[in-house]
């Protein structure tokens, strides 16, 4: 919807994108979120049109790791992994199915309404291979998923747009 767009302002707008990537309703006082969106990578989220069809685990496969990750996600205080890790790093060789596992977990979390955000890197996509877009994309998704943080994130951006 906004690919290759830059240096523009839309006031009091409502955006709906049929590709499932964007559904933004901006209040007049949410210019910070609009600025933030301009620094995101909409094609990196788990349900982005650019990722269709997204890789998924086949039913009945990888059940142990999926159960372990879902348990880790749902813990109040992480206790599933050694050293009480609050970060889980999914790793393995190319082609091992890391993206399929992460996609399956992201979809399950979205279905359970506990997904705050997601980011899937891709080497050949200039917005998805840019680590600078990781935090802005997650911040925007968090502002959308958690209404109580929306005004805080908007305010922080308005006070210091150079953070982006």
Automatic annotation (TrEMBL):
It comes from the Eukaryota. Residues 61-158 form the Nephrocystin 3-like N-terminal domain. Keywords: Repeat. InterPro entries: NPHP3-like_N (IPR056884), P-loop_NTPase (IPR027417). Pfam families: NPHP3_N (PF24883). This is Nephrocystin 3-like N-terminal domain-containing protein.
């Amino acid at each position: 919807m906004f690919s290759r767009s830059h240096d523009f302002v839309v006031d009091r707008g409502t955006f709906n994108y049929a590709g499932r990537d964007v559904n933004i309703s901006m209040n007049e006082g949410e210019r910070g979120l609009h600025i933030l969106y301009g620094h995101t990578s909409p094609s990196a989220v788990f349900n982005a049109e650019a990722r269709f069809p997204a890789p998924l685990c086949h039913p009945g496969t990888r059940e142990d790791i999926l159960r372990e990750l879902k348990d880790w996600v749902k813990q109040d205080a992480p206790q599933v992994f050694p050293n009480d890790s609050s970060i889980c790093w999914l790793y393995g060789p190319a082609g091992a199915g890391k993206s399929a596992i992460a996609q399956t977990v992201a979809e399950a979390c979205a279905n359970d309404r506990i997904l705050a955000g997601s980011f899937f890197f891709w080497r050949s996509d200039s917005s998805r291979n840019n680590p600078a877009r990781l935090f802005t994309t997650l911040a925007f998704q968090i502002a959308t998923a958690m209404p109580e943080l929306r005004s805080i994130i908007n305010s922080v951006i308005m006070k210091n747009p150079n953070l982006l």
